[in-house]
Design a protein that fits this description.
3 domains, 18 strands, five-stranded mixed sheet, Phenylalanyl-tRNA Synthetase, Chain B, domain 1, Phenylalanyl-tRNA Synthetase, Chain B, domain 3, globular, alpha+beta
Amino acid sequence: MKLPAEWLKEYCDINITNEQIVTQLTMAGIECELLDEPGEIIDISLTPNRADCFSVLGVSRELAALNNTNFKSDQNTQTTIDHSDEIEIKIESPKDCPVLMVRIINDIDVNATTPAVITKRLNSSGIQSVNIIVDITNYVMLETGQPLHAYDLRAIDSELIVRRGHNKENITLLDGSIKTVDQNYLLISDVAKALGIAGIMGGENSGIQTDTKNIVLESAYFNNETIMGKPRILNLHTESGLRFERGVDPSIQNYAIERASKLINEYSGGKNGPITNSTSNSETPKRLPILLRKKRIHQILGITIPNNRIKEILTKLNMKIKEQDYGYSGWMVTPPLFRFD
């Protein structure tokens, strides 16, 4: 994953060189290097267990903790609701899709020019500009780690359905390829046809066109076990599939859809409908507390770290901590939902 260094610095109060960023992250187990040209892009090689760092916010959070500084995320993402149009959603398997949020945005200008700062950051990250709507969904994915998808409202018949594929079901995708799937694959469909392979790639017939006026914006959490291995079998190596395979934060869907809506309104106009939300609390991942023993820290690292510093580091990484024996024996640490390791 390639990210511009200046984008990372936007979310944490650090005044260090790009070389120092690379050194700090690599020493912390997030291997990366600074690309020679132009020397402002960091190429990050993530191990499969660190899906939380597949975003600007994730890497910036690590940098903030390493430098004992504040992590800044844009919490002011709430948008106005301009109309009451909604599209019905149906989840046939909540275990495969515990969270699905969608919103209709009407009267967009799909031919609006994507701002230079967005196209530059996309290009630096290896993603080509397509149109204002696709660019914004890709931009928010890189920023938050949450893949998004936008449908042309005209292409959806009645409702959005999340279901397993039928035996030998064919679907033509955005890249023009035709894939044959079965019940092992999760699909997004309407009452008449498949609209895309969930978490991997959308269908050709429901994509954004040059005359699209009204869209349905989708933000979902798909079970990584459901998606795992499917992109490789289908020979579809997408940024979305890569993130859903390793695990996406199951609590960030609302933030991401609001963030994308805000950018769409700012640069492409549009009138927002309410967010339609289907969330299965019983199927959403939970995190159990882990005992972090103080003696074990010293055994592994060979150094003594003050209790206050340990708590400070864990807190900056969004861990919930509870002291055991006033910190003498250690802490019960509950990881945040975005940590799958």
